[in-house]
């Protein structure tokens, strides 16, 4: 009986985008308010250029949770708008926003404001500018903006510096081998980083010291895999949904028009470089995985909207909600 009611509920969510939107906002709001009143964990990790700001944020719990939730909602709806405007799912849906909110709220450590959440916004803006350059005769402004956004993201959260390679691959995928665009993209990437180093050198006189701290932090890895039982359960469910979702995703790429095929390919590259950023992160905690949320939310959305196995998709959706609840409350 419960399974039947849940299956009906999932089908209603799939067929009623507004209800799905309201459901996502209500769940996200409830989780973040509960964490604010209870056990939200302020960020106190390591960054290079904004240490003073993050130290202040770690002491302002209400500000961190409030601004973090606003930023999360903004990212969710900007990403959802990008997916729908480019008809990447062949139907209008709020599933991308739903999964961004749910996945970014799945652990207590994710409740608040932290560097990887901020950098995800700029990585998404970079991807939007790159996709907007498709078939444009002159796209120098687009690739410059994309490089600039990735440079800003790298300042906020240094592990995503690896996305400079994603920038080159994206230009080659969406555009063609035009050397001026590659050069302009690199200039855009270097500009915010160079400005930050110059500012610290001229006014704070510690740019070399900050760079040395960044290099030394790369060896500060988490060297063990000791997780609580609810964390292992959550990982198992994520991996199970991931395998099913990516299998369907890869097989559905040829069914799209050329532009959508290119964007889907970029999303796969996004996932790859996001994984690399996790492994080069000095912290390797739940927050480092947030860079994966945007592309994974799209892959998950594609699976739950298009899977022909209704029973299996309904079961995985139920498992996802249950394991997130266990992860938050235990």
Could you provide a short overview of the structure?
Helix content is 74%, strand content 0%.
Question: What this model shows, in words?
Answer:
The protein has 330 residues and is mainly alpha-helical. It has one domain (2-329). It has 14 helices and no strands. It has helices at 2-15, 17-37, 51-59, 61-85, 95-103, 115-132, 140-156, 163-174, 179-204, 207-217, 229-252, 258-280, 293-306, 310-329. The radius of gyration is 20 Å and the shape is globular. The two termini are 27 Å apart.
Give the SSE map.
Blueprint lengths: L1 H14 L1 H21 L13 H9 L1 H25 L9 H9 L11 H18 L7 H17 L6 H12 L4 H26 L2 H11 L11 H24 L5 H23 L12 H14 L3 H20 L1
Helix pairs in contact: 1-2, 1-14, 2-4, 2-5, 4-5, 4-6, 5-13, 6-7, 6-8, 7-8, 7-9, 8-9, 8-12, 11-13, 11-14
Figure out the total of helices: 14
First CA to last CA: what distance?
27 Å
**If you average the pLDDT, what whole number results?**
84
Radius of gyration: 20 Å
Order of helices and strands: HHHHHHHHHHHHHH
Shape: globular
Number of domains: 1
Helical residues, percent: over 70%
Largest sheet: none
Residue fraction in strands = under 5%
Based on DSSP secondary structure assignment, what is the total number of beta strands? 0
Q: What is the SS-derived class? A: mainly alpha
Low-confidence residue ranges: none
Oligomer: single chain
